[in-house]
Amino acid sequence: MQIVHDIGELRRAVRAIGPVAFVPTMGNLHDGHLSLVRLARSEARAVVVSIFVNRLQFLAGEDFERYPRTMERDRGMLEAEGVELLFAPDERLLYPAPQTYIVRPPPLGAELEGRFRPGFFEGVSTVVLKLFNCVQPSAAVFGKKDYQQLVIVRGMVGQFDIPVAIVAGETIREADGLAMSSRNGYLSAPERAEAPRLHRVLSAVSRGLPPAEGLRELAQAGWRPDYIEVRRRHDLELPRAGDTQLVALGAARLGGTRLIDNVEF
Questions:
Q1: Residues designated catalytic
Q2: Contact at 8 Å (CB) between 243 and 235?
Q3: Beta strands across the sheet bearing 257-264
Q4: Residue 128 and residue 153 in contact, taking contact as beta carbons nearer than 8 Å
Q5: Please, which residues bridge with residue 77 across strands?
């Protein structure tokens, strides 16, 4: 596996190996990330993975400084998957000057996650556009666990006519249903035992439990819920009469850790 830190070197390497599928990550990899790598392998002859902790998508007081950075471990996992290129840019490479040109998402970017993390999707959209310009892939893979991110990136690609096919990877779960996430490592042992409740509640909502009752159950179990909502899958608009392809989405804090999840139905 070739590791590159420079954009020019990256582009030369991509041209040399032909069309590539791309998996953007912030590192601290787990089996959920590796499932996206394997899906990318089915989309192109070669796979590029990026590891970059993007400051723009962290709000003041969030965990940018303490976000786990496990490059050597991540490198070994990607080598074992046969990844051809790892792009690991320094922050000064992607942001050599203050990023004053920002991608502004549609109104959806201020709902759900965006309501509780204002500016988050501006940071995500901006860095994704920059990474697409650096890597120039034919396809890019995003996990469904970050459902709203997937929908917003897909819309950005469509409206800007970016020649990248957006491929959705299914959420990978632990045996007890907890969605795999790099932030699960923040959970204490009792919190880890409680954490699958979010998925159970969302599954119950998908079967007809009113979202307000789901919020009440989480609060009674010691969570600090942000939202539980049912939206249309393809655009995350509120459901209309006749809509049948839906998704229940939720976010809540358990101790000091904020977890998100969703269930399609």
A1: 33
A2: no
A3: 224-232, 246-254, 257-264
A4: yes
A5: none
- Whether 48 shows a pLDDT value over 90: the answer reads yes
Rounded to 5 degrees, what are φ and ψ at 122?
-65, -45
Please list, in sequence order, all residues whose beta carbon lies within 8 angstroms of the beta carbon of residue 235, skipping any fewer than 6 positions away.
108, 151, 155
Compute how many other C-beta atoms are within 10 angstroms of the C-beta atom of residue 34.
19
pLDDT digits (tens, 9 = 90+) for 154-210: 999 999 999 999 999 999 999 999 999 999 999 999 999 999 999 999 999 999 999
Kindly indicate the confidence band of residue 60, based on its pLDDT and cuts at 50, 70 and 90: confident
Cβ contacts of residue 163 below 8 Å, gap of 6+? 138
Give ranges for CATH 3.40.50.620 in the chain: 2-169
Task: Please name the fold of domain 2-169.
Answer: Rossmann fold (3.40.50)
Cα separation, 10 vs 134, in Å, equals 7
- Nearest CA to 138 among 99, 177, 167? 167
Pick the CATH number of 182-264 from 3.40.50.150, 3.30.365.10, 3.40.50.300, 3.30.1300.10: 3.30.1300.10
